[in-house]
Amino acid sequence: MVLRRLRVGCEFAYRAVIPTPTVFQVRANDAPRVRVLREEWSSEPVIAVRDYRDLYDNLCARVILPAGRSNLRYEAVVEVPDSVEDADERARELAPDALPDEVLIYTLPSRYCLPDMLGNEAWSRFGAMPPGYQRVQAICTHVHDHLKFRYGSSIASSTAADVNESGFGVCRDFTHLAISFCRALNIPARYVFGYLPDLDVSPDPAEMDFAAWMEVWLEDRWWTFDPRNNRRRKGRVVVGRGRDASDVAMATTFGGPWLDSMVVHAEEIG
């Protein structure tokens, strides 16, 4: 198998009035598909980092941001396959009673994904289509065409129903809407968050940020779909998976520190 080497990571600059417990989800977390060769945390001032895994088996880091200004950096060198994600247009949907117990949770409403509110539209648009991989792809194509990508067009409380009505969003909004349509059709779909470098595609002129996409359960496994880019890509490095963005927040602070800046990078290295 041909492999490509990437450098991925991020840096946060905070100001806090008091010491503030914080959880970060930014670590590469997709073994064995992604092999982590090296990773490290660094900070100014020195901050202790303690790792744990959450209920979705995501790697998380617990820290206490000190009072005053602090910078926290994470960087990893990883190897990824030189190939796009798997696809199979013959992959079948399963009836709800045939789904594995552990994927049923991904058919239910969650904070941002609202299949109950979007059910009528989902069935009217996609209900008559043959079930399976191609129907999920049709959902992604519709969301990709319906929403226009615009920074600042949604806020932390914006749901899939909100962005469906406004017609604007960022990658997490594209993903929440596609997940909602899938769940409304009883297709298990989960939110995925991570790094997405510009490998063998035209460079995105926008500033690098974390990316969001989804995985959908068809037949006997999860399949990757990307309603934001609507194409299969190389180099995805998963950080976390969950019901929606609320389960994989890059930073959860138990207090009110100010985030002065955030930088994300993901690029190929020799």
Please, could you describe this protein's structure?
By secondary structure, this protein is of the alpha+beta class. It has two domains: 3-82 and 250-268, Immunoglobulin-like; 96-247, C8orf32 fold, CATH 3.10.620. Helices cover 17% and strands 36% of the residues. The protein has helices spanning 115-126, 133-146, 160-166, 171-184; strands at residues 3-16, 20-24, 35-44, 50-53, 59-65, 68-81, 148-149, 168-169, 189-195, 211-218, 221-225, 237-242, 251-253, 258-268. The strands form four sheets. A four-stranded antiparallel sheet has the order 3-6-1-14, with no helix packed on it. A hairpin with a 5-residue loop joins strand 4 (50-53) and strand 5 (59-65). The radius of gyration is 19 Å and the shape is globular. The two termini are 17 Å apart.
Order of helices and strands: EEEEEEHHEHEHEEEEEE
CATH fold name of the largest domain: C8orf32 fold
Please identify the top-level CATH class of the largest domain. Answer: Alpha Beta
Structural class: alpha+beta
In total, the number of strands is 14
Strand order of the largest sheet: 3-6-1-14
> Main beta sheet: strand number and arrangement?
4 strands, antiparallel
Basic shape: globular
State mean pLDDT (0 to 100 scale).
Answer: 96
List segments where confidence is low: pLDDT < 50 over at least 5 consecutive residues.
none
Span between termini: 17 Å
Question: How many domains?
Answer: 2
Helix content: 10-25%
CATH architecture field of the largest domain: Roll
Rg over CA atoms, rounded to whole Å, is 19 Å
Binned strand content: 35-45%
Quaternary: single chain
Helices, by number, come to 4
